[in-house]
Records
---
Amino acid sequence: MPLRQAPDGATLLTYRRTCVSIPRFSAPVPPEKVVTALAEQGVAIVERLEPAAKLDAALRELSPHVEATPPGSDGFAGRRTRRTGALVARSPICRELVAHPFVLDVVGRVLGHASNFQLHLSQLIAIGPGEPAQAIHRDQWAFDFFPFPVGYEVQCNTIWAVNDFSEGNGATRVIPGSHQLADKLQFSEADTLAAEMPAGSLVFYTGSLYHGAGANRSDHVRHGLNLTYALGWLRQEENQYLSVPPEIARSLPDPLLRLIGYARGAYALGYVDDVRDPLDALHGRVSQSRLGDLEKAAERIRGR
Ligand SMILES: O=C(O)CCC(=O)C(=O)O
Ligand SMILES: [Fe+2]
């Protein structure tokens, strides 16, 4: 990860003065409050949005796949960390969580400046004991380090606590307010706060927030379910068309398929052969729809 030092001490000083705590809510909470906190701090925790037992059941559904997952091959992925993906194909509970109405409501407002958003990746992150802290980074650097303008969010992440997240077991480390800082800054663990939360809670953060997985100094594995959403015109980090094989995809409901990428972004992105809708192509139907909404596209040009 090509990090570099902060160009001037002032930026870090500003951060230290304003970073007090991570915005924290208890479910149920109106989505607007979470969206406001995300606009202000780039991060927000919603405690106990789902029963801990539900996350535990998801872990049981995934456990054969987790056992078969090799640990990471470099320090960033974590040599004592397993990252198990294809969660939409592998876990009915994860399908529910990917399409969680409250989460989609929040994400839809954070990414509402584009014509649609989609699932970017699904990953159960199992951090083993002894894993050091991950380098502090922005997830949107995945887009080949393109310098998106400050305030233009391209990604909204969620990490569900499958077991309790604590400072000692590798809770995600975040720098509230850092979504507004310059790009490619370098931070250390001491600059961050631990997103501690009980199982069944989740932390939302934008792709612009500086963060990283914490060090696991405990004797047990930290399980976090990372479900990330990004603008429909960006390439997905996890290739859903291969991660969810067509025979499984055909059994999934249309709204979930749209969410994982069987949708056209903007006016024409993602069509199949003779400008067919991807859902028509998946189900082997003749085209029942035309391209996207031309009038809406025209409105966007006019800036409405
Ligand atoms: O697992 C975590 O707490 C965060 C992981 C992360 O930030 C990443 O892998 O990009
Ligand atoms: Fe990350």
---
Amino acid sequence: MSIDPRDPVAVAQALIRCESVTPAEGGAQALLESLLAPLGFEVWRPTFSDEGTPDVANLYARRGEGEAFVLAGHTDVVPTGDEARWTEGPFSGAIAGGELYGRGAVDMKGAIACMVAAVARALDGGGELPGPVAFLITGDEEGPAINGTAKLLEWAHARGERFSGCLLGEPTNPEALGDVAKIGRRGSLSGTVTLPGVQGHVAYPHLARNPVRELAPALTALLGEPLDEGTEHFEPSNLEVVGVRSGTGAFNVIPGEAALQFNVRFNDLHTADSLMALIRDRLDDALGAGAYALAFEPSNADAFLTAPGPLVEAVSAAIEAETGRRPALTTGGGTSDARFIKSYCPVIEFGLVGQTMHQTDERVAVADLETLTRIYGRALANAFG
Ligand SMILES: [Zn+2]
């Protein structure tokens, strides 16, 4: 039975039935190709590889010449957990009580289905798209994100593809369609402070040096002063200590080392580099340079902001026209592939209601799929307007 690309519910059901848990393609991108090619899209499906990570299938499709407006998303999904706990099978695409069940229903096969339907409706009966449109679809958003959007963008750019703006369909709404569009994301930086000591007998402390004593000034250095007060579009940056390691397990041994692990979610007042310098300065002041070791995890997540402008207005106006509400423009939550896209064109995120993402019984209101399809259709028209 062939699927009507104008019907977001049918497309979402078919996508959910593809078992595409990261990094498996599961037939989801083949299905998208089979829907987009007859709509006049030229479709490429590059697979990317890197040492130590699984190969990942990706899809790029374009219709029309020149700077394209990009509809972006991922077909991979997180694992289901215990399938027996689901009301409807996680790959069933079953509808019950007006809701479509399945892994990826909101994160984010549902939104991809709405993108396909919006485009198919614009082309229906000999219609035309308001300008060149591209689909940028990865299979590696929920995984290490090495062989996904970052490489797909590089690949497309090297082929001469250029973009005017991007709408990424991650689930952004906390309660109802129209709540929130995301116009940026905080950066993320993780690090470890290691405090050296000299291990010894607890009854002979003069023969040892206890590094646990240095945890107190180290904690004060990391947590004592706020990193900033926030900015117009961002909450204050936040450092959380997520781990404290020391001790041998014995009550009669002074440990030879202590360590603190921390993660910072930071706003646009910082870069990863400036934040590393700031943290080192504070630790130098508290502990003395050379009295500790500081190591940072590799970070590919800087903070970014798409300043309110034509793209943000195009999407906000489309949301308001269909839901009667202007979305709040926020930058909260975790990172997303928008962190890679922002280097190529302005990017905004708007998708379904995220309440059940990654949960057992992930599901979406069938009515929301229709509304989001209309929002995406209007956003496309506005973006070229
Ligand atoms: Zn997602």
